[in-house]
Amino acid sequence: MAPHHARSLLAALALGAAVTVSGCTAGSDSSSNSPATVDGSGSGSHSKSGSGSDSGSAASPHPSDDGSAPKGTGAQGSKDDGRAPSGVRWCTTKSLSVSLRPGQPAAGNRYAALVLTNSSSSACRTQGWPGLQLTSESGGKIPTDVVRERDVPSRPLTLSPGGHASARLHWTVVPGKDDPSDGRCPDPHTVRVIPPDQRASTSAAWKAGEVCGAGEIDVRPLLPGADLPE
Length: 230
Prior knowledge:
With 230 residues, the protein is mainly β. Helices cover 9% and strands 29% of the residues. It has one helix and 15 strands; from the N terminus they run H-E-E-E-E-E-E-E-E-E-E-E-E-E-E-E. The protein has one helix spanning 3-22, and strands at 36-38, 53-54, 89-90, 96-102, 109-118, 124-126, 131-135, 141-142, 145-149, 157-159, 164-172, 190-194, 202-205, 216-219, 223-224. Strands 2, 4, 5, 9, 11, 14 and 15 form a seven-stranded mixed sheet that branches. The chain has a four-stranded mixed sheet with strand order 1-10-6-3, with no helix packed on it. Strand 4 (96-102) and strand 5 (109-118) form a beta hairpin. The chain is elongated and about 55 Å long. The termini are far apart. Residues 4-34 and 38-85 have low confidence and may be disordered. Keywords: Signal. Pfam families: DUF4232. InterPro entries: DUF4232. Residues 23-90, 177-205 are annotated as: Disordered.
């Protein structure tokens, strides 16, 4: 093969490889629309599309005693210098407060809204699924298996000071084969939460009762507002 033709072929292959890699960056499954801005009123809207969940890519964070988690745990979206192109910083663990709002129970199923509130004095951005770890009153870890639901697409959010974003949690209270033989499932005291693209965790009181199913919790991506997402 002539040297000129060989160089042309190598250049074409390199270009094709670059295109393939660029489509696999973190957050490539997310909506490409511009970020939704959430203010302190807690209002927001979302749409529902598709069905099913992706348990194969579920986050199962196990924070260490110092509140950190393995690299990449609970993360969705790109990790850069903490700034969006518009100059809005990524929401850090320190800039967020977390609370849990139990929803209406239904036939062995339980629901709750995990609410992240921007407690800082400036806007910040977030996107994706939080990481979770249930703990006992003494701080011991309770089995926690987070399954990321993907029937609602992840979307970029910008939280104004006092603004909220929430993720719907779903779990069962019906004992299964992997639960204690006496049928008494763990009743967590606290949930440790790792915001998207962070490593440090923060905590919220768990006042939502027992968690059966070996600690499996279905988690939807963060959406605007503090109410339980549909």
